[in-house]
Design a protein that fits this description.
Number of helices: 19
Strand order of the largest sheet: 3-4-5-2-1-6-7-11-12
CATH topology of the largest domain: Rossmann fold
CATH architecture of the largest domain: 3-Layer(aba) Sandwich
Number of domains: 2
Distance between the termini: 33 Å
Bound molecules: adenosine-5'-diphosphate, alpha-D-glucopyranose
Structural class: alpha/beta
Radius of gyration: 23 Å
Largest sheet: 9 strands, mixed
């Protein structure tokens, strides 16, 4: 692209330019354990198209693949005071610029030498106290002062707190902050003494309005919510739900108190990365015109690869998930025997709690040829399952947004979801009278309601195929990109003028 075109393209963008520092604990393709990793990758890219200048600050974990480590460039280092006893730590900055986004990795072997980004709270609490303070110090060191500091989840929740308590009068002290809740279940709670030691924050902040919780504990997310200029979460419904005791994870009253600065902006997906027309990991690429035929080819390839009975007339139901209580897997476990009827296959991909890993392995053993449980984390297999499945299960107990139902729709795979959080906001229930909707839904968290939803899907699949195929096309045509939500984030950044 010539400089002239770049200039013209720039002029056509919304003005003025806004600079944003994204701070979070994971980001695809460097390190990803769930949807936060997808968002940290895709949203900055979508914001660039909205005339934002984005820098992403991440820990430099050992587990980041070598091919990325090799491309990082050393940008400097310094020592940073951290602990209550005056102990200071090395902060190195390794930079990687890719696709218009600048990634600054914070380097410190003591904190980030583990294989996994999250290990246990004993190690994770100091790690993310250090990371949150170092992120601010890095911005000052690089003399890159953003208009907005956009922090994600509890791991970066202390950023607004450190900023207010320790960085006033420094360049980064004037930036506005946003804290996005991706999952309220994880809050970074530990005893007061430990958090006091690792932050050296003033005693006044160990108060009920900020860090304090239940006398003995400090809650990092709670403090971030108090100090952030604005709070967002990843769907409108979840923004409402978390203000109630059931979904509030003990912070519902705190969130109601701060509700004037709380907003829901639904996630999207990167539609270039997730595109059945160009996805190199698929057996057969497809668009809306040939989806029905080509999805059968993908189905056969998957059945073959996984040792399932090879028959494209069988209905394949996919499930890709962290295997935890959040995801409604006890409901799935309860209905698998009723699903397996000789015409239906179930493919699971996930890792997590032993109870679910074992039960899914058990079902694979009982229903050989009809159930395949892939107890692993595997991006390639995920792409294959999204493309090959006919329907996709997301029966979550709670779901802040959920990306798997969005990816499924993009691949013409009909979602079956519980009406909660982002699932409710993104999947419109099938209406048989008007022939509208994108999937099948159920409301209360009961296994028989999930079974009923799956049976409604099966009925349409086996007895109303034309209608089913129309829904496949509707799903593929649905806008699941970041475009609309990136505009909303930009608007929010504009409202928060420093
Ligand atoms: P959460 O963040 O709660 O785990 P999301 O639906 O937002 O849920 O995002 C999950 C992301 O992780 C999706 O991109 C999904 O494809 C991916 N994913 C989950 N489990 C696996 C797995 N075992 N292998 C590959 N990808 C997975
Ligand atoms: C969380 C939530 C999920 C959401 C993701 C990205 O991990 O569990 O619902 O889609 O973050 O925001």
């Amino acid at each position: 692209m010539s400089t002239e075109t770049t200039g013209a393209a720039q002029a056509a963008m919304p003005q003025p330019r806004r600079s944003v520092a994204f701070i979070g604990s994971e980001c695809y393709p460097f390190v990803k354990t769930g949807g936060l990793g997808d968002v940290m990758y895709a949203l900055p890219k979508a914001l660039i198209a909205q005339n934002c200048d984005v820098k992403v600050i991440l820990p430099r974990y050992k587990c980041i693949p070598q091919k990325y480590q090799e491309k990082m460039v050393y940008r400097g280092s310094f020592m940073m005071d951290l602990c209550a006893d005056g102990k200071s730590y090395y902060v190195g900055i390794m930079e990687y610029v890719w696709d218009g986004v600048v990634y600054d990795f914070i380097d410190n072997d003591e904190f980030f030498s583990w294989g996994n980004p999250y290990t246990n709270l004993v190690d994770d609490i100091p790690k993310f106290c250090y990371f949150s303070k170092a992120a601010l110090a890095v911005l000052n060191y690089l003399d890159w002062v953003p208009d907005i500091i956009h922090c994600h989840d509890w791991q970066a929740a202390l950023v607004p707190v450190f900023q207010q308590a320790m960085f006033q009068g420094t360049p980064v002290g004037g930036a506005k902050s946003i804290l996005t809740i991706h999952n309220l279940r994880f809050q970074g709670i530990y005893n007061n003494e430990t958090i006091k030691y690792w932050t050296n924050l003033p005693d006044a902040l160990f108060d009920y309005a900020v860090l304090q919780q239940k006398w003995v504990d400090s809650n990092m997310l709670k403090a971030g919510l108090s100090y952030a200029s604005m709070i967002t979460t990843v769907s409108s419904t979840y923004a409402e739900e978390i203000q109630t005791p059931f979904y509030g994870e003990g912070l519902d009253a705190h969130l109601r108190f701060h509700s004037r600065k709380l907003r829901g902006i639904v996630n999207g997906i990167d539609t270039t990365l997730w595109d059945p027309q160009t996805d190199k990991l698929l057996a057969a690429n497809y668009g809306t015109k040939n989806a029905v035929k080509q999805k059968r080819a993908n189905k056969l390839a998957l059945q073959k690869a996984l040792g399932l009975d090879e028959d494209p007339d069988k209905m394949v139901i996919g499930l890709i998930s962290r295997l935890t209580d959040q995801k409604g897997l006890d409901l799935v476990n309860a209905i698998i025997p009723s699903l397996i009827d000789g015409n239906t296959q179930v493919v699971v991909l996930g890792t997590g709690d032993a109870i679910y890993e074992d039960s899914f392995r058990g079902y694979e053993n009982t229903y050989k040829g009809s159930v395949c449980s892939n107890i692993m984390y595997d991006e390639t297999r995920a792409h294959m399952i999204y493309a090959a499945s006919d329907a996709f299960l997301v029966p979550s107990l709670f779901e802040p947004c959920g990306l798997t139902q969005l990816i499924a729709m993009r691949y013409g795979t009909v979602p079956i979801v519980r009406e909660t959080g982002g699932l409710k906001d993104t999947v419109e229930p099938y209406n048989e009278y008007e022939n509208t909707g994108n999937g099948f839904t159920f409301d209360r968290y009961e296994w028989w309601l999930l079974l009923d939803a799956v049976n409604r899907a099966k009925t349409l699949y086996f007895t109303g195929r034309e209608r089913w195929d129309e829904m496949v096309v509707r799903d593929m045509e649905k806008d699941v990109s970041w475009d609309k939500s990136a505009v909303q984030y930009r608007q929010l950044y504009m409202e928060l003028k420093p």
